[in-house]
Design a protein that fits this description.
The complex is a heterodimer. Chain A is mainly α. Helix content of chain A is 32%, strand content 7%. Chain B folds into 2 domains: 38 residues; 73 residues. In chain B, helix 3 runs antiparallel to helix 4. Chain B has 5 helices and no strands. Classes of the chains: A mainly alpha, B mainly alpha.
């Protein structure tokens, strides 16, 4: 299984096939049905008719992490939720991507100083691909995040032997696990 | 004679190839990285409790069955309401609808008498036997 994954030399024809697969993956992102706090309301608006995320192929939220590529973390992650977010991310199928939506998720937001229970940025528990700041971000901002992610996915190596583009994660907060998540 | 079934054979082979090709292709280049946390049952990120093969109470089944009867009845009422108001003989349409509901109502009376609405049926029956 997966014998050809990142196993071929990084030459032009392989790159071309990778580009094609990346284009397919980036154009059919399946986000997970997941919302935590107020940013989730804005995220729902993005999914719905007015802003219509389906234009970018990412408009069908899946009910289980097994079917999802993308977890948009919308809203304040507190210590109790952090464990769950981490596990949901762990249970997603690979390749998997994370969008941190909103100020709280990007770095603590309004709770950065006195929020004793808030995780100051979800990148402390899972590797984040795209940060979308705002309180909450406007729907256009989230759509821009999706497009940025699409760009990132299309650059990724599938067959070619190349290091992953890498998501940002503050590894100090997570125990290293054997073969654990991307970029961990 | 068997040659006349060649279309079935082609159909069968095409079906098998169409299913197997994406599976094999996906298996070749998808990342494979199972670990304990990833492979555990999905319970909305909570720790799974108990066994998956739990015994399910039969009373839910009978309640669901009774519900389905009236659920389907409602589904039939909508087209009936649309059509019966535009038919020339409105009385007949109305009577037919009433007859349909009455038949289901008879079913309702039946399950009522049989005691299927009693959630703690066994206790009720025991009491009836004793009293």
């Amino acid at each position: 299984m997966g014998v050809l994954n990142n196993a071929l030399p990084d030459v032009a024809p392989v790159k071309a096939v990778d580009g094609l697969i990346g284009w397919g993956r980036g154009s059919s992102i399946w986000p997970m049905t997941f919302g935590i706090a107020c940013c989730a309301i804005e995220m729902m608006a993005v999914y719905a008719a007015t802003f219509d995320l389906d234009r970018f192929g990412a408009g069908v939220p899946r009910a289980t992490p097994r079917q999802s590529d993308l977890i948009i973390v919308p809203g304040t992650v507190n210590a109790k939720m952090a464990v769950r977010v981490k596990r949901l991310y762990d249970q997603m199928a690979e390749p998997r991507y994370v969008i941190a939506m909103g100020a709280c998720v990007c770095g603590g937001g309004p709770y950065v100083k006195w929020g004793y229970n808030t995780v100051k940025g979800v990148h402390k528990i899972i590797p984040v691909d795209i940060f979308v700041p705002g309180c909450p971000p406007r729907p256009e901002a989230l759509m821009d995040g999706i497009l940025k992610l699409k760009e990132k996915i299309s650059r990724e190596a599938v067959f070619a032997r190349r290091a992953a583009t890498g998501a940002e994660m503050d590894g100090r907060y997570v125990q290293a696990r054997p073969g654990g998540g991307a970029g961990a | 004679m068997f040659l006349s079934y060649h279309a079935v054979l082609v159909f069968l082979i095409t079906g098998i190839v169409m299913v197997c090709t994406p599976l094999v292709l996906g298996a070749l280049f998808r990342p494979r990285n199972p670990y304990a946390e990833k492979s555990m049952p999905y319970e909305c990120a909570e720790d799974p409790v108990g066994d998956a093969q739990v015994r399910f109470d039969m009373r839910f089944y009978s309640a669901a069955l009774i519900f389905i009867v009236f659920d389907v009845e409602i589904a039939f009422m909508f087209p009936w309401a649309l059509v019966s108001s535009s038919t020339p003989d409105r009385t007949l349409g109305m009577l037919e609808g009433v007859f349909f509901v009455a038949v289901l109502g008879l079913g309702l009376v039946y399950v009522w008498v049989k005691g299927d609405f009693e959630w703690v049926k066994s206790f009720q029956q025991k009491r009836r036997v004793q009293g």
